[in-house]
Specification:
The protein is an alpha/beta fold and about 425 residues long. It is about 55% helix and about 10% strand. The strands form three sheets. A five-stranded mixed β-sheet has the order 2-1-3-4-7, with helices on both faces.
Length: about 425
């Protein structure tokens, strides 16, 4: 007859394979595919230069084409609009003059948004031409009566209207990465590597003072951030400006993810590794908006993404690499908060270890360097601790009682 316990374990395994694993895969696919399928402007900040009637028509045209898609900021002149783009207040601006439209964009802020602004400018130009054609009469017809009493008609046509569209990339992407492919592809590997660093340092089994574990995390992230920067800029040319600040941004992002992972592992054990992967890889990365912009994601998703290290780190990296650090204050605050929480958990939290007999043993790393992990003696180290036929170790009382009997048996065998 089959053991009921074995049958129960087989049932649990079947449920895991048939139900749980497909569910996890479907949720992972949805986490990445759903935000990507809903990309559209939502209160995307753009600038409008001037308050003339032409500027008002631009606002009306954009609002009509993308209802609720744009958040309009008015500027007195083109120089003010350019300054706002460089300060990361807006993603682009429209400068309208009679017969012309200047589209200011910043591909470094987001190639997807720059393309959207470019398309919107073309649509505005087409609409302006249609309006001009409707307002201008096709022909000015007058009637002139000749001396002979006949009526002659004369058509006076006007030259076709022209509307000039000029595009200016105020903050362009790197010439080696014009579409931002390298930049967009770097966030996920950085996230995964940061989690691996934390798991290696926290689950290695080495006993060390807590302060040393914190120092190792900081040093490892700084070194890994430097190598990542060397690859992204030295080999691929994707991060062209502010070398030291950009390296610091990469390292801070990795430290925020690593510290969070190490803190969760310290508090709840190996399950913390799964929690970190769920939070950072399957939520933080697809919600970061790195491939488009936070304002292009569904509502609430953009906010969640910017409060997690992948989203905050990606925007911080854009600010340091292309915008002289403008607009980076909030992202630095978010990353610093995750670093503090994670490192505090590493320094003060408890870690759970499983002993050789399967019983959980809790301990706290001492700050003075003397580890409090009591060595667990293996069953093979003590002759009297061999398991009984029932699979359990003998109790001390039984071992004491059995001691003289065994000694007497050995003495008889010697004789």
């Amino acid at each position: 007859m089959k053991n009921p316990l074995v049958r129960l374990l087989s049932l649990r395994r079947a449920v895991m394979v048939i139900v749980a694993l497909p569910l996890v895969v479907s949720l992972a696919v949805m986490a990445y595919a759903w935000p990507a399928s809903r990309i559209a402007p939502r209160d995307l900040p753009v600038g409008i230069v001037g308050t003339s009637e032409a500027s008002q028509k631009v606002v009306e045209g954009l609002a009509r084409s993308k209802p609720g898609g744009f958040d309009f900021h008015l500027y007195a002149d083109e120089a003010s609009a350019r300054s706002a783009i460089k300060s990361r207040e807006v993603y682009g601006a429209f400068v309208v003059t009679p017969g012309s439209l200047t589209v200011l964009e910043a591909s470094a802020a987001s190639t997807s948004v720059a393309q959207l602004i470019h398309t919107s400018g073309q649509q505005l130009a087409a609409h302006a031409l249609q309006s001009a054609a409707k307002e201008a009469p096709a022909a000015d017809r007058t009637s002139v009566r000749s001396k002979a009493g006949r009526t002659a008609r004369r058509a006076v046509t006007k030259p076709s209207a022209k509307f000039v569209v000029t595009e200016v990339d105020v903050v362009p992407s790197s010439a080696d990465d014009p579409r931002g492919v390298v930049f967009n592809s770097a966030v996920l590997p950085l996230t995964i590597c940061s989690i691996l660093i934390a798991s290696f340092l926290t689950m290695s089994g080495l006993r060390m003072p807590r302060w040393r574990r914190v120092v190792e995390l900081v040093a490892a992230c700084a070194a890994a951030g430097f190598t990542a920067y060397l690859v992204a800029q030295g080999m691929l040319g994707a991060l062209p400006h502010e070398q030291v600040a950009t390296w610091a941004a990469v390292s801070l992002t990795m430290l925020a993810i690593s510290a969070t992972s190490a803190g969760l592992i310290t508090l709840v054990g190996p399950a913390g590794l799964g929690l970190t992967a769920l939070l950072m890889v399957f939520v933080g990365n697809p919600f970061s908006g790195v491939t488009s912009a936070p304002e292009m994601l569904p509502k609430a998703v953009d906010t969640i993404g910017q409060w997690l290290p992948p989203g905050a780190g990606a925007n911080l990296l854009r600010s340091t690499a292309y915008f002289d650090g403008n607009g980076s204050e909030g992202h630095i605050t978010v990353l610093a908060l995750w670093c503090v929480l994670g490192l505090t958990a590493v320094a003060l939290g408890r870690r759970t270890r499983t002993a050789a007999d399967g019983a959980p043993v809790q301990h706290v790393d001492r700050a003075d360097g003397a580890g409090s992990e009591a060595p667990v003696q293996s069953e093979s180290e003590t002759p009297d601790s061999h398991p009984t036929p029932e699979g359990q170790s003998e109790s001390p009382a039984l071992m004491l009682e059995a001691g003289p009997v065994r000694s007497h048996a050995r003495h008889a065998a010697d004789h």
